[in-house]
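queue> holo job accepted (iron/sulfur cluster)
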Amino acid sequence: MIPPRKSRTIRIRDLALGGSAPIAIQSMAATRTRDLDATLRQIRILESAGADLIRIAVDSKEDVAALAELRKQTRALLSVDLQESYRLAELVAPHVDKLRYNPGHLHHHEKHKSVQEKVAYLVGIAKLHGIALRIGINAGSIAPEYQARFGEDHVGAIVACAVDHCRMVDELGFTNYLVSIKDSDPRLVIEANTRFAEARPDVPLHLGVTEAGMPPEGILKTRIAFEQLLSRGIGDTLRVSLTLPFDEKGKEIEVGRELVADIEAGRFRSVPPNFFHGLNIISCPSCSRVENEKFIELAARVKQLTGYAKQHDLTIAIMGCRVNGPGETDDADLGLWCGPTSVNLKKGEESLGNYSYEAILPRLLAELDKLIAAEAN
Ligand code: SF4
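queue> job finished
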């Protein structure tokens, strides 16, 4: 049930990706990169689960030093997520097989330089070190120029941004790259990736539903997107992003393989028309930026305590850090983003203050009750 893909084949060290190569399954270390023992353990867990590629976030020179040490201790294919820290690319590149940059984060630093100059810098480094690049677009961090141009048309904005970045990279004579376009809503993931694949069928795609949350809902949301895309021949590598305890991260790989096997064999799950109705809890899969491991327990408690509201069409978002947390909770009815010792509560874009990990739960429930009462009036 997975038709031949039209994408070209790229190489990530000895891994062929795209075209007729098998669909590669990847995941990301959730531990702090500078915590060498924990990150190495995380890499081993993902390797033994059969990960083809392992992503690590690097935010500082301390993380780069840790990465250099990790490189000595593992042969796993490593990809680094640069996020805002794209200027670390030259330090990171000697130790990895792939770099991921987010076009929505290029404006934060070196404001005097154009986006084209920044992309040329990244491509130059990838060429120099013979590594691959991922243009990783996230609907939660759309580049400001596309936000201004497309307003509420998020899909239009992210697809245009992806196509433009591909053109910039092409013009620099670099082809060893792929694209990802992610969101927490599988419907948007399906639409954006389908439209991108129509525009650029030659570019390999990395699929994912970001912040899908905890199993089983997180797996279902991911399945909905992957069934629709893989069955149209769209998608060359994928990640299932789940909020899980660090020691259980291998499940992301197991679920990824299971989904591909099911789709290949035609084992589709039907989606009832009311699937998207009711309380929607989204939570990030956590990564090295997570500020406090209590985040994972908090996400589970939120799910448990809000069960009484499952009939209400409301979204609660729970994010693990201050980097992406503030932006990625904007669209939720209630948002929680976690700091080292406290949790920030938001109602839409409005901040409602910050609370200890214990005090946040009754405060969240009080706000949830207000929203439910407002719905009834
Ligand atoms: S919200 Fe923060 S901790 Fe969670 S996955 Fe994103 S960057 Fe990592």
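queue> Residues 284-287, 289-290, 319-321, 323-325 surround iron/sulfur cluster (CB under 6 Å).
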